[in-house]
């Protein structure tokens, strides 16, 4: 993604979900710009149930934004 | 679900709720791709009250998205 | 509720609030299917202020969904 | 409030905010029905900064519901 | 603010943001009415990164309410 | 940003995302006005996975506000 978000809508819920994950990660990259530190922190959340649930919560908020924009599952 | 979301609306609140749970789990699967690690983490949240409440919070956000799209309980 | 959600709208805010509580609990039941474990975990949240506040947060999200659908307090 | 929510809209933001606080408390009362336990837990959150912030988060979600219904600060 | 919210819309995003901060603080004041206790708790959150992030989350929810009402950044 | 928010809409999702980050930071600056303390706290969240996820959650809420206003990814 290279810190740059797409301007066109994502056509399917699965692609929208992937965009939501990218949106969640983008804050991490912008707040902790050092990739070595991010890599070092990875097991802290990827092997921790509560951290994974917290990541899921952030993705849920972004997915809500995309789903409302694109109208997933409407009508 | 196989990491692929449905494109058709879910007809009932109960089915929508199940989709919300799948949406919540999808981040976990995509962030921690190793099923053995996920299995090992399971008791960490399934036997922990606060973790279960956190999972419920994520599902609530996804259910809001689906309920708004499908119009559950409207009119 | 028996893991099955109503399809008709709840007529009053009080009934909608009760539905929101059921929606919050439904994830717990589906994630931790063993009633004995759930019973054992009960004091962990029912006698813990922070856990009770977290439950209240989940209910607030579900109540928002129901209130928007049903139009509580509008006009 | 006696576990029963009003059906009429609250006319001002200040009254709506008070209703939001009641909505947040209602889950606590319904999850922990014993007033003696609730009283005992009170210092755990009323004298703890993080718990107070968490209560404030729940109230914010409920206030959003009421403000959207009543149209506070619109137009 | 004196525990009383304005009834007129805030004209700019900056003023709306200040109102969001007041809305977040109002729950603290109403839940912990003793100003001496609140003062004593202040370093617990003002010098703690996670607490400051939590305060920011509450303000974000209130700001969403105000921005939607007032139509900040629309069209 | 200087504690003053823009009044014009941000034209692209990437610029909107940057505004969301500024909105998240603004509460920190207003709650902890001392830049030396904020600087001292920085490693507490920038080198902590759970804190970074929490920051990401706040940004997600602000981004939802901006995306809805600006209509990112619509139609």
What does this structure look like?
Six copies of one chain form a homohexamer. Chain A is mainly alpha-helical and 75 residues long. Chain A has one domain (13-70). Chain A is built from three helices and no strands. Chain A has helices at 13-31, 35-46, 49-70. In chain A, helix 1 packs across helix 3 (49-70). The radius of gyration of chain A is 14 Å and the shape is globular. The N and C termini of chain A lie far apart (31 Å). In chain A, 45% of the residues are buried. The model of chain A has no long low-confidence stretch (mean pLDDT 92). Chains in contact: A-B, A-F, B-C, C-D, D-E, E-F. Chain A binds chain B through residues 12-14, 17, 21, 45-50, 52-57, 59-61, 63-64, 67-68, 71-75, and chain B through 3-10, 23-28, 30-32, 37, 41-42, 44-45, 48, 50-51, 54-55, 57-58, 61-62, 64-66, 68-70.
Helix-and-strand structural type of chain A: mainly alpha
Shape of chain A: globular
The profile of the biggest β sheet of chain A is: none
Q: Which chains have the largest interface?
A: A-B, 29 and 37 residues
Task: Indicate the radius of gyration of chain A in whole angstroms.
Answer: 14 Å
> In what range is the share of β-strand residues of chain A?
under 5%
Q: Uncertain regions of chain A: pLDDT < 50 for 5+ in a row?
A: none
Measured between the Cα atoms of the first and last residue of chain A, the distance is 31 Å
Number of strands of chain A: 0
User: How much helix, percentage-wise, in residues of chain A?
Assistant: over 70%
Mean pLDDT of chain A: 92
- In quaternary terms, these chains amount to homohexamer
Q: How many structural units, i.e. domains of chain A? A: 1
- The count of helical stretches of chain A stands at 3
Element pattern of chain A in H and E: HHH
